[in-house]
Design brief:
Elements lengths: L1 E4 L4 E4 L8 E5 L10 H19 L4 E5 L6 H10 L3 H18 L15 H13 L3 E3 L5 E3 L43 E6 L16 E3 L1 H13 L3 E7 L3 H16 L4 E7 L3 E2 L2 E2 L10 H6 L4 H9 L8 E2 L1 H24 L6 H4 L4 H6 L3 H8 L4 H17 L4 H18 L15 H15 L3 H13 L2 E6 L2 E6 L1
Parallel strand pairs: 3-4, 3-9, 9-10, 11-13
Antiparallel strand pairs: 1-2, 5-6, 6-7, 7-8, 11-12, 14-15
Helix pairs in contact: 1-14, 2-3, 4-5, 5-6, 8-9, 9-14, 12-13, 15-16
The structure holds zinc ion.
The site of zinc ion has 3 residues, from loops.
Length: about 475
């Protein structure tokens, strides 16, 4: 398996350093509101990466954190009149519900920053001991960027000629949890207690305060994955300053390579523009569900572009995703029919990963293995399905193909036949006619069943029998 590495700017093979588990860490959500579809694009790409690592027998250990203490969570919990814990728990649950809706696998570990304050304080202590941090007049502790010469390698700061802006301890350090790409400055490891923090402070050797945002990912990834691990990921916007700061504060302490591979997902555009609330093109998952899009259509649309290409998310894209899934379902339905299986059997088939690698869909697998190329994988899947649609198959052949498809769907995290047709779409009288026809059919009253089918047709609907019952489709 190979993947593009932001640090070396090259596609690199993936191997676990310890030969047992592939250890990966993804920067998770900051829980003060619903995650938007841009966040979910990143989390979905990471979900597929974790699934593909599993298929490739690399035994992933996937950690994704919950950021529950930083400027926004504190301010908004106070505005809501809730404790930080109560406020962020609500949004954490909301996030988990969204992840389940999108059929994302639960990470093996999901540490919260507030539950790792001690680990963060210890890390600040070590940085102070080694001379990489200092306490400023405001009581906060800052990382001294000049004390770590490799700073900026990941985002190529030297090439952006920003190096000269790096402040020394005499300059103005940066207290904000996040800041834009134009300013490089000493960043806060420990923020001294301020009135606007409310009750959200902890005791430390440097007085009362709270950790800076960048620190948690170093402390938690080290705790769950070790000083040095296989892959670190996140959205491209985290490359600088967040990931640069993580590298600096960790490697300054351990002297080891923090992460061997850096994996970033390019952000999406909506209708060709950067998503923003003011532009009116800002969507959460639930906005799209309310519009009637099924979770799998949304998942498919969000994974449809290569992770290194900008995805332009549009309503046309959702329609395209819908028809792609319907096409897949049609081919699979025929296979199920030949194999004399029901729809739900697809979910229950054993996951045979070697069958995916070597069988009819090996082209799709190769695309996933080579830099996680989802569009090429689905493209190869459709060309293969087209051939399969035209072939005469025995029951055994259909069964083998279904087994391979089940493994490929698992790798992509797609579930078929899950879209709930909107009940309001089918008029009551048509539903009634369809019920009557189904009854007539079961009573083997073929003449009545045919008459009812014609009446349904006259209302503009087609009734189709399936192994599990019947479906109504608008004509
Ligand atoms: Zn992080």
């Amino acid at each position: 398996m190979r993947l593009f590495d932001t640090m070396t700017r090259a596609v690199q093979p993936l191997q676990s350093a310890d030969g047992r588990k592939y250890r990966l860490y993804c920067c998770g959500p900051t829980v003060y509101g619903p995650a938007h579809i841009g966040n979910f694009r990143t989390f979905l790409v990471n979900d597929i990466l974790r699934r593909v690592l599993e298929v490739a027998d690399l035994n992933p250990l996937y950690v994704r954190n919950i950021t529950d203490v930083e400027d926004n969570t504190i301010r908004q919990s106070l505005e809501a009149g809730l404790s930080l814990e109560a406020f962020t728990s609500q949004w954490t649950n909301y996030f988990h519900e969204d992840c389940n809706t999108l059929n994302m696998l639960t990470p093996h570990e999901e540490p919260k920053a507030t539950q790792h304050i001690e680990e963060q304080i210890n890390l600040v202590g070590k940085l102070m001991e080694k001379g990489h941090a200092y306490q400023a007049a405001d009581g906060s502790v800052y990382f001294k960027v000049d004390s770590y010469p490799p700073y900026g390698r990941l985002s190529r700061l030297d090439q952006r000629e920003l190096r000269s802006q790096v402040s020394t301890s005499g300059g103005a350090p940066n207290l904000a949890d996040n800041y834009d790409r134009s300013s490089v400055a000493d960043f806060a490891l420990w923020k001294s207690r301020k009135p606007e923090d409310g009750d959200n402070w902890w005791e430390s050797s440097w007085g009362q305060g709270r950790p800076g945002w960048h620190l948690e990912c170093s402390a938690m990834s080290m705790k769950y994955l070790g000083d040095s691990f296989d892959l670190h990921s996140g959205g491209e916007d985290l490359c600088f300053p967040h990931h640069e700061n993580e590298i600096a504060q960790t490697e300054a302490v351990t002297g080891k390579t923090f992460a061997h591979h850096w994996f970033h997902t390019i952000h999406l555009l909506v209708d060709g523009k950067k998503m923003s609330k003011s532009a009116g093109n800002y969507f959460t998952l639930r906005d799209l569900l309310e519009e009637g899009w099924s979770p799998m259509v949304i998942r498919y649309a969000l994974i449809s572009a290569h992770y290194r290409q900008q995805l332009n998310f549009t309503k046309n894209g959702l329609h395209a995703a819908q028809s792609a899934l319907q096409k897949m379902e049609k081919s699979v339905l025929r296979l199920l029919d030949i194999a004399e299986r029901r729809k739900q059997d697809l979910e229950e088939l054993p996951l045979d990963f070697p069958a995916l690698m070597k069988g009819s869909f090996s082209g799709s697998w190769k695309a996933l293995e080579e830099d996680l190329n989802v569009p090429e994988a689905t493209g190869a899947m459709f060309s293969r399905l087209k051939e399969i649609d035209r072939s005469d198959l025995s029951m055994e052949q259909a069964d083998t193909i279904l087994l391979e498809i089940a493994a490929l769907l698992y790798a992509l995290g797609l579930k078929l036949f899950t879209a709930q047709p909107k009940p309001a779409d089918v008029p009551e009288e048509v539903k009634l006619l369809a019920e009557q026809r189904w009854k007539a059919k079961n009573e083997k009253d073929w003449a009545a069943a045919d008459t009812l089918r014609d009446r349904i047709k006259a209302e503009g609907w087609a009734v189709k029998d399936t192994r599990d019952g019947y479906e109504l489709e608008a004509l």
